[in-house]
Amino acid sequence: MTPADSIFARARQLVVNGNGAAGRLLVDSVIAATSPDSAIYADAIYWRAALAATSADAEHDYKRLVVEYPLSAHAGDALFQLAQLEVARGDRTAATTHLDRFLLENPASDDRGRAGLMLVRLAFDQNEPQHACVALRRALQDVPATEVELHNQLDYFSPRCVNVDSTRAVGTASRDSARRDSTTASTARRDTTPAPRVSKARYTLQVAAYGSKADAEALAKRRKARGVDVRVA
User: Fold this and answer.
1) Residue 45 and residue 78: Cα distance in Å, rounded?
2) What's the whole-number average pLDDT of the chain?
3) Is the pLDDT score of 170 beyond 90?
4) What radius of gyration do the chain's Cα atoms show?
5) How far, CA to CA in Å, does 140 sit from each of 16, 129, 154, 157, 202?
6) Is-contact 57 46, C-beta < 8 A?
7) C-alpha to C-alpha distance for 7 and 29, rounded to whole angstroms
8) What is the DSSP code string of 69-97?
9) Treating both helix axes as pointing N-terminal to C-terminal, what angle do 39-50 and 3-16 enclose, rounded to 10 degrees?
10) CA distance linking residue 218 with residue 223, whole number of Å
11) How far apart are CA 181 and CA 231, in angstroms?
């Protein structure tokens, strides 16, 4: 265990014992004394989120971890925690997105079964049966036989998937259809239509949003140091 890990463990114990302010102060002290480019800094952001006094503070730091430190050992757990916070406030769309990403990027996580069950419920609630049934099939494969209760909760949804194709990823059928339509149309006009011009357009992808310009500029500086063309709007 590293010195930083010992501090995080002490902070967690203080919060559990009811002294949340002191615990969070310990984590803040690590953040203040550590370079933002270090793995310890990413760990500190995670623990500040995990021990946050409010769900809004926790969500802010979990999002920061996911965006700025996607290779952190805690990035997967941050995605799962984000999804749970979003479910709690009724944001099903955002929760579904984070659960899909969590399951894609964390094949060995012990939380895959719970995340799968949550995704199945959300997809059915949003009237997306194929999405739900694909998630259900995957979750039943992920959950060990020893997890009897979790298996039972997943099996509850199985009858709803009897007539649903869960063998293909969501969206595959529509993409295949679109590809066939595109190929047919291209064949019909290839003798008369000139070759398409290559677009020289440039695009901007938003990677984060901050409440202060200083925070945004700090992220931009770190991204530029890694060779990424970044701007702050």
Assistant:
1) 10
2) 84
3) no
4) 22
5) 34, 16, 7, 11, 43
6) no
7) 10
8) -TTSTTHHHHHHHHHHHHHHTT-HHHHHH
9) 0
10) 9
11) 39
Residue 31: name the closest of 7, 57, 53 by CA.
Answer: 7
Encoded amino acid at 93, one letter: T
- Helix (H/G/I), strand (E/B), else coil: 164: coil
Predicted TM-score (pTM) of the model is: 0.69
Neighbour count for residue 190 (Cβ, 10 Å): 9
d(CA 200, CA 192): 24
Side chain identity at residue 226, one-letter code: R
- Report which residue type is found at 33: A
The residue type of 232 is V
Report the amino acid identity of residue 127: N
Which tokens in the block code for residue 26? 């310990």
Residue 130: name the closest of 97, 87, 175, 163 by CA: 163
Q: How far is CA 65 from CA 43, 45, 77, 88, 167, in A?
A: 9, 7, 10, 20, 33
Mean pLDDT, range 127-143, rounded to an integer: 93
Helix (H, G, I), strand (E, B) or coil at 136: helix
